[in-house]
Amino acid sequence: MKLQSEFEVPCPCCSATLIIDANLRRIVRHEEPSRGDKPELSHAERIVAEQEARREALFAQSVESERNRDDALSKRFEEALKQAGKEPVTKPTRDFDLD
Fold first, then answer.
1. Which of 1, 11, 32, 86 sees the fewest Cβ atoms within 10 Å?
2. What sections of 1-99 are H helices per DSSP?
3. Residue 97 lies in a domain
4. So what's the pLDDT on residue 60?
5. Is residue 66 in a domain?
6. Considering its fold, how many domains does the chain have in total?
């Protein structure tokens, strides 16, 4: 119910409707705009199933990439170990040795 002292103003920021009482000089009610992308509750089960399948696929991809990561790191380690075995062992140069 709207009183005579009340008037509606659209919010420039969020497009909501603000009901302002002129006598009280304050906002008495706020009505949010209807969203077009709001999901229907009748499709909730399908939406939840799709999200679950998406999460499972992402998890499986993550597990596979971690397995491949371990193999790649061990190959890199072995290559670095071979390269370190071929290089001669030298004493590191320190700053005060240069004087």
1. 1
2. 44-86
3. no
4. 94
5. yes
6. 2
Q: How many CB atoms lie within 10 A of CB 46?
A: 11
Residue 52 phi, psi (nearest 5): -65, -40
Residue 10 CA to chain centroid, in angstroms?
Answer: 32
Whether residue 44 is contained in a domain is answered as: no
Nearest 10 degrees: Cα torsion 48, 50, 54, 55:
20
Q: Which domain holds residue 55?
A: 49-85
Residue at 21 is within a domain: yes
pTM of the model: 0.39
- Phi and psi angles of residue 73, each rounded to the nearest 5 degrees, phi first: -65, -40
Among the ranges given (15-24, 50-59, 67-76), the one the predictor scored with the smallest mean pLDDT: 67-76
Both tokens of 33, joined, read 């705009």
Does 17 score more than 80 pLDDT? yes
d(CA 9, CA 79): 70
User: Can you tell me whether residue 77 is helix, strand or coil?
Assistant: helix
Computed over every residue of the chain, the mean pLDDT equals 85
